[in-house]
Amino acid sequence: QKEVEQDPGPLSVPEGAIVSLNCTYSNSAFQYFMWYRQYSRKGPELLMYTYSSGNKEDGRFTAQVDKSSKYISLFIRDSQPSDSATYLCAMSVQQGAQKLVFGQGTRLTINP
Amino acid sequence: NAGVTQTPKFRILKIGQSMTLQCTQDMNHNYMYWYRQDPGMGLKLIYYSVGAGITDKGEVPNGYNVSRSTTEDFPLRLELAAPSQTSVYFCASSYISNEQFFGPGTRLTVL
User: What span, in angstroms and rounded, lies between the C-alpha atoms of B45 and A93?
Assistant: First the structure.
């Protein structure tokens, strides 16, 4: 069993739709949860960061963490073609030098 | 600031050859990392460093070596390249905060 599971997709939705991306994990020691966005042939860039359980909102993006279910989600509202990318969830046990464990990424396409 | 830079962008190696992937950051970050990303997969940590002179293994260190003689540079050495090392390699750095900044990657093919 992988430590972090993420549906690889691909996922294709029309512009303006609400997108839901999810990851499950098995290690209950994970405390820090991140979502990275990776455009084709580029390095990942941090999109959202949360600590422990709860919600965090940043513009059109909302990250949710449910530690009791070992489940995290990223919601994108009013999706735009520029949101087309691969979205990777990542988690770590500690702060400082974080040894991130990544999901395999979900490839998302927003159709105009 | 250039951020995290990596060279080369692309490289083709023959089995058994060696090479060094270069990584430099100009943000004065103390933590640096090397990841590999196989097609359709997430990133796996190879090695990381918490400061000059200090390195440690990640999840997939076999076949690789690193050194950290300065804050800015964190080269990754491949000895005796194998086809299983065909991948995209990303270097990242971070400060005390948890955000890791990634470089543009090096695409390596071993034939």
Answer: 14
Q: Between chains, do B58 and A102 touch, taking CB under 8 Å as contact? A: no
Nearest CA in chain A to B5: A43
In chain B (111 residues long), the average pLDDT of successive 10-residue segments reads 93 96 95 93 93 93 96 96 96 84 96 95
Q: Which residue of B has its CA nearest to A87?
A: B42
Instruction: Give one DSSP letter per residue of chain A, joined into a string.
Output: --SEEE----EEEETT--EEEEEEE--TT--EEEEEEE-TTS--EEEEEEESSEEEEETTEEEEEETTTTEEEEEESS--GGG-EEEEEEEES-SSS---EE---EEEEEE-
For tokens 């159709």, the residue is A111
Residue B56 tokens read as 């440690």
Asked if residues B9 and A41 have their Cβ atoms less than 8 Å apart, the reply is no
Chain B CB within 8 Å of residue A103 CB: yes
